[in-house]
Amino acid sequence: MKQVIQKWGKSFGIYLVLMILFPFVMPDEYYRSVGIIIGLHAIVTIGLCLVMGLAGQISLGQAAFWGIGAYTSAVLTTKYGLPPLVGLVAAAIVPGLFAFILGRAIAGLQGYYLAMATLAFGYIVQIGITEWEPVTGGASGMISIPRVPIFGDSELSMYYLIWAVVSCVLLFSLNVLNSRVGRAFRAIHKSEIAATSMGIDVRRFKLNAFVVSGMFAGISGGLYAHYMGILDPQPFGLHESIKFLTMVVVGGMTSIWGALIGTLVINFISEGLIAMSEFVPGLQGDIDTIVFGGILVLIIMFMPEGLVPRIRSLYEKSRAKKTKAKEELQRMERKATT
């Protein structure tokens, strides 16, 4: 944790200030709800960044873990009367178990085969939620899901609760990134053969990343259920998985901060499309899926490292040029004086 504070203390401080002030700068309830949705998505994308950017795995089923977490907490609180906090704990554990089982089953798969396996898992989960009507309510969904009674019951309290969870997830992930485990993940991402030759248990580390990612998505799903108060299977399909994937790729797969920035960028684009659809009827429907797919292709073609690593690289090059110019100027001044 000390290394995280030393390396990311300033960035995390700026993040905290922006997060705390946002509801007061944007006091409108609509923008607060947008901030809440961004926070929920950020929890998922940070976990997905651990899987893709560190462990080097492709997952197209992240929305499935999101849905499992949401329905787990919703069922426990509405049908069995358990407290929402118990539901949220279960919303982390149950998707984690599913991720463990799936991770063990597909441990030998890589590349497109892994992507197809997670895609199939996402379809199975969405169909299961839709067809298991006695428990999940089927296509009609569930209603009267209670709010989480922490910090009160208002929109503002829910905002701070969700972003407090985002902060914990962010700190945990940054700590992992700067630990021995993070170095092992980076070695696996660069070359699994080289990592294995160094004594790293590649399968175990990949499975751990997959489970943690599933748990993060489950926590976010549980919070989503308690925030919305209603659920239906529609948000937990391929469309949302592609959206999560786009957020990570746009921000930068190898950057935890990139996952957060990518989430902000894609959500702002999504809100922009919604606003434009009021004036341009052709932008209604599933146009956002096409837009996100196009963004994903363009980023992969022209900026595969993502926004945050590209900006960091440009900043470092600029600093290096300024330092070199300053040293050259000092050398010329010394030469002139002699």
Describe the structure.
With 338 residues, the protein is an all-alpha fold. It has one domain (2-238). The chain is 78% helix and 0% strand. The chain is built from 14 helices and no strands. It has helices at 2-25, 29-54, 62-78, 84-105, 111-131, 133-136, 155-177, 180-190, 192-197, 202-228, 238-251, 256-277, 287-302, 307-337. Helix 1 (2-25) packs antiparallel against helix 7 (155-177), helix 2 (29-54) runs antiparallel to helix 10 and helix 3 (62-78) packs antiparallel against helix 4. The mean pLDDT is 87.
Helical amount:
over 70%
Averaging pLDDT over every residue, what do you get? 87
Shape: globular
| Number of alpha- plus pi-helical segments | 14
β-strand number: 0
Estimate nothing, just give the exact number of structural domains.
1
User: What is the beta-strand fraction?
Assistant: under 5%
Unreliable stretches (pLDDT < 50, length at least 5) are none
Structural class: mainly alpha
Q: Give Rg in angstroms.
A: 22 Å
**How are helices and strands ordered from N to C?**
HHHHHHHHHHHHHH
End-to-end gap: 50 Å
Keywords: Cell membrane, Membrane, Transmembrane, Transmembrane helix
Subcellular location: Cell membrane
Main location: membrane
Pfam family, one: BPD_transp_2
